[in-house]
Amino acid sequence: xxxxxxxxxxxxxxxxxxxxxxxxxxxxxxxLGAVNVVHATFAHVFGLHSPLSGANxxxxxxxxxxxxxxxxxxxxxxxxxxxxxQGVFRNPLADPYLLGAAAGAGLGATVVVxxxxxxxxxxxxxxxxxxxxxxxxxxxxxxxxRSAGAAAGPAALVLAGVTIASFLTALETFVQQQxxxxxxxVYSWLLGRLATTGWREVGIVLPYAVVAWVIILMxxxxxxxxxxxxxxxASLGVNVARVRLFxxxxxxxxxxxxxxxxxxxxxxxxxxxxxxxxxxxxxxRLLLPLSVIVGAGxxxxxxxxxxxVLAPQELPIGVVTAFFGAPFFAVVLRTTxxxx
Amino acid sequence: xxxxxxxxxxxxxxxxxxxxxxxxxxxxxxxxxxxxxxxAGKTTALRAVAGLVPYGGRLRVFEHDAGAIARKALARxxxxxxxxxxxxxxxxxxxxxxxxxxxxxxxxxxxGRADQRAADGAIEQLDLVPFSHRRLDTxxxxxxxxxTLARALAQDASLLLLDEPTAALDMxxxxxxxxxxxxxxxxxxxxxxxxxxxxxxxxxYADRLLLLDxxxxxxxxxxxxxxxxxxxxxxYGAEVEVVDAPGSGFVVVPVRRPR
Lengths: 340, 259
Description:
The structure holds 2 protein chains of 2 kinds. Chain A is mainly alpha-helical. Chain A contains 14 helices and no strands. In chain A, α5 (125-147) packs antiparallel against α11 (240-262). Chain A is globular. Chain B has one domain (2-254): P-loop containing nucleotide triphosphate hydrolases (Rossmann fold, 3-Layer(aba) Sandwich). Chain B contains 9 helices and 12 strands. Chain B has helices at residues 42-49, 71-77, 93-98, 113-125, 141-154, 171-188, 199-205, 223-226, 229-236, and strands at 2-13, 16-27, 31-35, 56-61, 64-65, 78-81, 159-163, 191-195, 208-213, 216-221, 240-245, 249-254. Chain B has a 6-stranded mixed beta sheet with strand order 6-7-8-3-9-10, sandwiched between helices. Chain B has a 4-stranded antiparallel beta sheet with strand order 2-1-4-5, covered by helices on one side. In chain B, a hairpin with a 2-residue loop joins β1 and β2. The radius of gyration of chain B is 19 Å and the shape is globular. Chain A binds chain B through residues 1-3, 218-219, 221-222, 224-225, 227-229, 231-232, 234-239, 277, 281-283, 285, 338-340, and chain B through 47, 50-52, 71-76, 78-80, 82, 85-92, 94-96, 99-100, 102-103, 105, 107-110, 133-135, 137-138, 155.
């Protein structure tokens, strides 16, 4: 990549995100109109009079907009967390669930569905429990990895994550076996979904997502330094363990918050950063901001597809991200030639 | 001025003593080569100086106690080029060289104009200008070696540690890289400490040679004192002849004796 080329990618990514969000609020059974939608959104933000009728205004403000914003927050978080994990672990297959966040969240959700019936998928308890499960899993993995020898480098942490994840998945399966009637409910959660009840879910994710994005983006240069290896990074004066801890904590907390409200949405954390790498290059200075923006837009588009393909039924969004994301990624892989 | 002073520096790894009470002083502007058989402790000595392994004894860098200097301040004085650097293939040469500026930046800092200039200067000095926007994984071994050297140069450290700088290079590239290092030593006033397997090259380029064996310093001095048949035979267990080639120093030739 030449230096000048970097500048066009950020505006392009913002256009992609804007197009995704506009599509997200426009597509649905009730026609709202692009101009009205933009006008009404500004009216709400600045406390002015909305041009839409009461019912249509509620559809926009209480249904579509929160869902689009939630999709953007979750998508941006998963893509940024995936890119960060790939950086701190120098492992192209790392995804945000690498250290056991998915297994922990799954166990947390399963326990709620099994032991607190009625609170169900929309209750207050499930996101909290999933969040705690994810956070505890990663803390356990981190502690285990450190005690196994931080000097061994990132491999010890990854192995610890695999260990913790297997253990928690076993627990989750055990609980499900005891409560077979809950399996379907848990399964639908595992496939991911962006169902909103007003702005509640946005409120849950927003603080974690924003703080995590800021912390991760501030480490973008140091992630480039980590790419030359732990020892060389140390010889450049960097405290590698501290950088890894900060980035992992930020990425994990935000992932846990995303999982808590949207379930396990696979693939976003891998496809989005790698697509950007192939197109733009591997430097985290551009990769991380682009991952946030493109990840946000990607998930909003995926949600539009999830809502419309079988309307009025909804596809699980995790199915959409994999079904459409995988072929797209295959095309990108085939068409990008490594320029000599 | 003394660039580097080791006073009974010892390193143990996994219970084994790898470096045993090494004492030596390197003057500023000197090129000192560490030689010795595999496992002699050459690389460990470099890693200790770079602050990458815990050591016993005292280590002074430009008259300051290396153990008392913050990691980042040490990195502004000492640059290490490892034998097999981990090359992130998908970034450009210039992005890679800019990483050398890390010890000069704050935790969340990004490079300013002075840093850009330092990186561009290093790229120029290593004749990498045509490659500066190429990805690292498109470079040959010799070009990568030069990129790594440029990164170390951009670090602006006065003490350059080179671990086998010529290991992966052909004969011509070896000379090329060593000539570049020697030229930079002159123009930038660098002090160079390198490990080297090729004894002939070590004798040709370094001012002084340190022969290590089993973690101990067994001989030190100019090529005429260290590159002798008895010393090499004893410590390398190799059959060699040492030829004094007028104009190009001592040539160490492996020989095969008929059984």
